[in-house]
Amino acid sequence: MHPFARARHRHSPAGEASANEAKATTGPILEGGWRYDLHGWLLDTFWFRGQGRELRRRAATLARLRPGEQVLDVGCGTGTLALEVARRVGRAGRVAGIDPSPEQIARARAKAARRHLPIEFQVGVIEQLTFPDQTFDVVLSTLMMHHLPAPLKRQGLAEIARVLKPGGRLVIADFTHKQDRAGQAARFHAEGSSLHDLGALVADAGFSQVETEEMAPARFSAFPGAGLLRAHKS
Length: 234
Ligand SMILES: C[S@@+](CC[C@H](N)C(=O)[O-])C[C@H]1O[C@@H](n2cnc3c(N)ncnc32)[C@H](O)[C@@H]1O
Hints:
Elements: H1 34-47, H2 51-62, E1 70-74, H3 80-89, E2 94-99, H4 102-114, E3 120-123, E4 136-142, H5 150-163, E5 164-175, H6 195-204, E6 207-215, E7 226-233
S-adenosylmethionine (SAM) binds at residues 25, 27, 29-30, 56, 74-77, 80-81, 99-101, 104, 125-127, 142-144, 147.
């Protein structure tokens, strides 16, 4: 169980959640706001030797972001990746982030406001994106897919395909599947995803040119390893 997972999900129908209420979803919602960020910084700095930060930078690089592009971060948490994306697409671009946790979204909004970055953070869920068809050039998601049960992954990928423009890019990064880890890395709580299974799901959702790369744990790092995937909407 993740230390910041919500103890019980509220089950108001998606779309009816108030500003302070989490969207109902079957995956675990994470909370904590600044406490989540502090925990993440300590974990990344002292256990992962900065490989968590490197993972998000690699995801942004893999997306080949260009100034002026429109980008969505799904399961954005406290918005760390969206901040990096906003720097890369510049003022002419548009960046949005969604997460079911109002506390994480409030923290993301505060971080963006401090940096004067006009990022649109919304409480929302991958299975019911509120954006019109063919809105985004790029959709990214980091460390989120392993939270979702299989049917929700399929539903979410169909939604991502819907909001991407034709030829748009999808980039997913997630921890290595727990059963594929060895040594200290196997002790980390997060389940992770199999890149092979994720690639098959993405192809089933109608994406093509699926490319993957792996990120191994560095020496003396407890980082569990990660996989990154880029695909194009046909
Ligand atoms: C481990 S966090 C990763 C957050 C962020 N992407 C990052 O890299 O720091 C996983 C996030 O997925 C969110 N999540 C859970 N279920 C979701 C759903 N159905 N749709 C969108 N996000 C979801 C959680 O609330 C949580 O913030």
